[in-house]
Amino acid sequence: MSVILGVGASVPRRVVTNDELATRLDTSDEWIRSRTGIGARRWVELGTSTSDLAADAGARALRSAGRSAVDAVIVATTTPDRTCPAIAPAVAARLGLVGVPAHDVAAVCTGFLYGLANAVGLIASGAARTVLLVAAEAFSTILDPDDRGTAVIFGDGAGAVVVGEGEDGIGPCVLGSDGTGADLIQVPAGERYFRMSGKEVFRAAVERMADVSLDALARAGLDLADVDHLAPHQANRRICDAVARRLGLAGSKVLADLEAVGNTAAASIPVLLADAAAHGRLKAGDRVLTAAFGGGLTWGATTLVWPDVTADFGVLGEDR
């Protein structure tokens, strides 16, 4: 079995409020909050890349774990600095990990859980004893500024965990996909901007996240009564609440941070976990159920026993 040894997160300095978006879009703070639960989001400034956020979050996770080296690096992202090559080797190099195997994972908002399954698999196979998993997005760089359906939802950020050998930590990672729905969440070939079919995605996300959550619990030998916290992908508040209702979990058990950072896609779960741990909402020994749904279509879930670690959450360039 594998455990989390350290956790870190990094968000851009720039805060974009709903009121700022309302100056150029047909929307309002009230409209955005009522439909998404988002009050603001963080967007990168010109010249800041996904790898900048990834390297900062990775450094924070390593510091949280008290380590300067790992055996492998995985980066989950939808917004790599370049189409080719992957950014994981560059992130590893920036962290002083030249020579360490490094690869990207592309599963959109399910990227962190796909990457976590990769990390656990590397450790189980004996190929690595410790893995740095980073999920990072500069989603604002692929948003159509005139598309109210997406521009108000997504934010930028990065979260990272160091995964290592241990007992009673990360439960079975349950993953799935359905390529027949690939057109629902996409950046079409030859185009710049991200597109999403909101109504169809809402229905599919609630159904898939709830079902895969139950599967993950069953495979871990747990019941819903054993869950202290649900840490869902921060798609929007209505989706998170609908998943909790479908599972029969009290709203008080649902962790959320999207009011301040929006939907950070692949990064949303580790950013959420780092934020909750840093602010005392998540404590050592708590049992966490986490699930995500993203483009592909992809989905996944797992259970965590939260470790006794100090989360390192900060703003890029300000406090590390």
Automatic annotation (TrEMBL):
Domain Beta-ketoacyl-[acyl-carrier-protein] synthase III C-terminal: 217-306
GO biological process: fatty acid biosynthetic process; secondary metabolite biosynthetic process
Pathway(s) served: Lipid metabolism; fatty acid biosynthesis
GO molecular function, one term: beta-ketoacyl-acyl-carrier-protein synthase III activity
Keyword Magnesium: no
GO cellular component: cytoplasm
Gene3D superfamilies named in the record: 3.40.47.10
Biological role stated in the UniProt entry: Catalyzes the condensation reaction of fatty acid synthesis by the addition to an acyl acceptor of two carbons from malonyl-ACP. Catalyzes the first condensation reaction which initiates fatty acid synthesis and may therefore play a role in governing the total rate of fatty acid production. Possesses both acetoacetyl-ACP synthase and acetyl transacylase activities. Its substrate specificity determines the biosynthesis of branched-chain and/or straight-chain of fatty acids.
Subunit architecture: Homodimer.
Protein name: Beta-ketoacyl-[acyl-carrier-protein] synthase III
Organism: Saccharothrix saharensis
The encoding gene: fabH
